[in-house]
Inverse folding.
């Protein structure tokens, strides 16, 4: 992975974490145990600190950054969907940020909350735990049910399993010229998109 020290500060990646080789880590970045960092993610700890706590995932093309002297934190089991941008905010334990959402400075997404896809969360935003947050600018729509929180947790567990799979057997290779005759189908998880209501 492209990993850069700046002003004598080097990123830290726990050995049980998986960081894709195309992700970029700069400076004061802490990737904790069992974390997943997807392809083309950018974690720029060149101004403020970036922390991913145990079991958090940061998916493809996400960007994490902060103003000088500020932190951007994804707490334990945080789940950040494809293309999201986090800037100087805190994603509390077991919360999820949907695809292509933006969460701005000093916003705090409470534990077990879900930010809907393509939401824009303004600076200084806060909410109660287990909130469903949607829109641009984002607002709390309602409280999440236990079933919805459980659905999110199962999705995060799939990414924790993916972390182990990547460490154990993902290897760079050359593509095949055509589909092989006995091509296996991936048999991973049973996450049902319809099972979240």
């Amino acid at each position: 992975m492209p990993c850069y020290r700046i002003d004598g500060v080097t990123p830290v990646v726990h050995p049980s974490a998986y960081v894709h080789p195309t992700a970029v880590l700069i400076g004061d970045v802490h990737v904790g145990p069992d974390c997943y960092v997807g392809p083309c993610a950018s974690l720029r700890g060149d101004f403020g600190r970036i922390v991913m706590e145990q079991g958090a995932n940061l998916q493809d093309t996400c960007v994490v950054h902060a103003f000088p002297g500020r932190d951007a934190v994804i707490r334990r089991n945080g789940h950040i969907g494809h293309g999201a941008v986090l800037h100087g905010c805190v994603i509390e334990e077991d919360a999820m940020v949907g695809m292509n959402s933006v969460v701005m400075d000093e916003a705090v997404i409470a534990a077990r909350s879900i930010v809907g896809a393509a939401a824009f969360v303004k600076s200084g935003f806060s909410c109660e735990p287990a909130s469903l947050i949607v829109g641009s600018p984002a607002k709390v729509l309602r409280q999440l049910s236990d079933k919805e929180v459980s659905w999110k947790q199962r999705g995060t567990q799939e990414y924790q399993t993916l972390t182990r799979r990547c460490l154990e057997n993902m290897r760079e290779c050359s593509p095949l010229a055509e589909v092989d005759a006995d091509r296996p189908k991936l048999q991973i998880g049973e996450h049902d998109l319809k099972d979240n209501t």
Notes: The longest helix spans residues 146-169. The helical segments are 146-169. The chain has one domain: 3-143.
